[in-house]
Specification:
The chain has 165 residues and is of the alpha/beta class. Helix content is 12%, strand content 29%.
Length: 165
C-alpha cells in the first residue's frame, strides 16, 4: 500500500525526463536496477521488490509489469507503450482460487512491442521481438521475431555486430 501511495504521489506525476528520480524511488522499494534504466511516469510496476534490471532497461508509458514473483530484465530490454507482462494467474481448479505466481525473464536486447502481452511464466529470450498487439503464451526463442495471438515465430532477427557470434 505504501508503494501505491508513493507511485501516485511521487512517481506518476514526475516530469517525463526524470528517469533517475523514478529509478531512485523504485530502488527505495527494493528494485535492483543497473545503470541508465529508463522508467516512464505512466509505467506501472506492481512490486518493485521483485524487479531486477540490468543496464539500460526501458519501460515505456502505459507498460504494466505485474510481478508478484521476481521478474528479470536483461541489458537493453525494452517494454513499449501499453505492453503487459503478467507474472501470475489463479488455479481455477481449486475452489479457493489461489494465486499462482511465476518467476519470469526478458532477455537482453529483447523488445516487447506496444500493446503486446506476455502470459504468466513465459520467458522472452535474448534479442527476441514480440510484435505489436501479439500475445506470448510460450517461451520466445532468442533472436526470433514473433507476431499474432498466440504469437508464432515469423522470422529470425539479425544480431547487432557486437553481439553476433
Amino acid at each position: 500500500m505504501v508503494w501505491s501511495l508513493c507511485r501516485a504521489l511521487l512517481y506518476r506525476i514526475s516530469p517525463r525526463p526524470f528517469h533517475a528520480w523514478r529509478a531512485f524511488l523504485l530502488r527505495r522499494f527494493g528494485a535492483k536496477l543497473g545503470a541508465g534504466c529508463r522508467f516512464y511516469p505512466a509505467s506501472k510496476i506492481w512490486a518493485p521488490w521483485n524487479l531486477v534490471c540490468s543496464d539500460a532497461v526501458t519501460i515505456a508509458d502505459g507498460a504494466e509489469i505485474y510481478n508478484p514473483a521476481p521478474m528479470r530484465f536483461g541489458s537493453h530490454a525494452i517494454v513499449s507503450q501499453g505492453a503487459f507482462l503478467c507474472g501470475a494467474t489463479h488455479d481455477y481448479d481449486d475452489p479457493s482460487f489461489p494465486l499462482l505466481a511465476y518467476k519470469m525473464a526478458v532477455g537482453g536486447y529483447a523488445w516487447v512491442c506496444a500493446r503486446a502481452m506476455v502470459a504468466p511464466g513465459v520467458s522472452v529470450g535474448e534479442g527476441a521481438v514480440l510484435g505489436m498487439g501479439s500475445v506470448a503464451t510460450r517461451d520466445l526463442e532468442p533472436w526470433g521475431v514473433y507476431a499474432g495471438a498466440p504469437a508464432v515465430k515469423v522470422k529470425e532477427r539479425k544480431r547487432p555486430g557486437a553481439l553476433a557470434e
